[in-house]
Structure formats: structure tokens, C-alpha cells
Amino acid sequence: MAELSIRPMLEPDLLAYKALRDSMLAAHPEAFTSDAETESQRDLASYRSRLTSNTTLFTLVALDGGRLIGALTCEREPRRKVQHIAHLVGMMVGDSHRGRGIGRALLADTLERLHATPGLAQVTLSVTATNQTAVGLYESQGFERYGRLPDAIRLPDGRRLDKLLMLRRLQD
Ligand SMILES: CC(C)(COP(=O)(O)OP(=O)(O)OC[C@H]1O[C@@H](n2cnc3c(N)ncnc32)[C@H](O)[C@@H]1OP(=O)(O)O)[C@@H](O)C(=O)NCCC(=O)NCCS
Hints:
Blueprint (H helix, E strand, L loop, with lengths): L3 E5 L5 H14 L8 H5 L15 E9 L2 E10 L8 E9 L8 H14 L6 E7 L3 H9 L3 E11 L5 E10 L3
Parallel strand pairs: 4-5
Antiparallel strand pairs: 1-2, 2-3, 3-4, 5-7, 6-7
Pfam family, one: Acetyltransf_1
InterPro entries: Acyl_CoA_acyltransferase, GNAT_dom, NAT_camello-type
GO molecular function, one term: N-acetyltransferase activity
């Protein structure tokens, strides 16, 4: 592996981000709520909302040399009464780079940034119940299951998959 780095996503990263996301949605339909066909038709400009915006706190990207090979987005509730809650979405590490600690590093960096963000008390995510790699990773970083949504996603091949709802407190 060339030099690995993690940093917030910038406008010039959007093309590579969309390419990674499109390929991951197509390769792992069971892992994501969005479907590859719809998302591949989205224009690039729509991904600007994944840079810092009204709801997105940040998207972190992982780079191997200059190549974007992983990403994780953190959104925050904009309404006043729920501003203490953030959500993680779009966790992905390209198949060529899996199992090398990059997902763990993206999550650890994200949690560090969330701890340093005033007013945040908890962070949630949802994960397909059968995705043992991801569930194991989240649990090892302090996420706990608080629910399970049955029949959460339906795949074209007829499979119906549950999602685990997970939560990590950032402060008491
Ligand atoms: C889930 C995902 C982000 C993990 O990223 P990764 O870089 O491969 O994960 P890491 O190498 O950091 O491994 C993290 C932990 O996952 C587990 N893990 C990793 N690869 C694994 C494998 N092939 N089998 C079982 N467990 C595995 C290990 O427990 C590891 O912990 P360790 O560091 O103590 O060994 C990545 O596999 C991925 O993008 N998968 C497809 C999309 C997806 O499922 N996204 C999550 C949506 S909620």
C-alpha cells in the first residue's frame, strides 16, 4: 500500500467519490439503502451536499497515494431539539483495500471529530443485520444495538433484509 491518509472530502474529490460510491452500490446492494441504478444517474453537483452543508458535518475520505479508496459521511440533525444527534452514512472501503484497517481508521477519525464538536451527545447508524464485518467494526468502536427494523430493504432478487439500529453516546 502506498501512503494512506484520511482527510475531509473537498470539491475536487467529488468525481472519484461518485465513482467509488457507484461501484460499491453495484457490488454490495445488500449493504446500502440507495440503489446503484438510480444513484449512477445522479449528477456530480448533487454530491456537493456531502461536503459540509446544512445537514452534512463532513465526509472523510481515505486516500492511498492520491487514489480515493474509502469514505464515511457524518450528518447532523438541523432542527434545534435534535441537534445533539449525528448520523453516520455511506461507510465504504473499496474491495481492493478491504481488511487493512481503513474502515476502522475512518471510524476512529470520525468519532474523534464528533467528540470535538460542541453540543453533540450521540451518533447513530443503521447496518444490514447480516453484515458481520461492519457490525463487528461498529461494536468494537463502542456502538450498541438499540433496535432492529425488520424487512428494512428489499433487493431485486427477492431478499428481504433487516437493519440493526446502532447508537454510540459521545457524552453523558
Ligand atoms: C465494512 C467496511 C467499511 C469495513 O472496512 P475495512 O477497511 O475492510 O475494515 P477494517 O480492515 O478496518 O476492519 C475492521 C474490522 O472489521 C472486521 N473485518 C474486516 N475484514 C473482515 C473480514 N473479511 N471478515 C470478517 N471480519 C472482518 C475485523 O473485525 C476488523 O477488526 P480488526 O481491525 O480488529 O481486525 C468495508 O468492508 C466495506 O466497505 N464493505 C462494503 C460496504 C459496507 O458494508 N459498508 C457498511 C455499510 S453500514
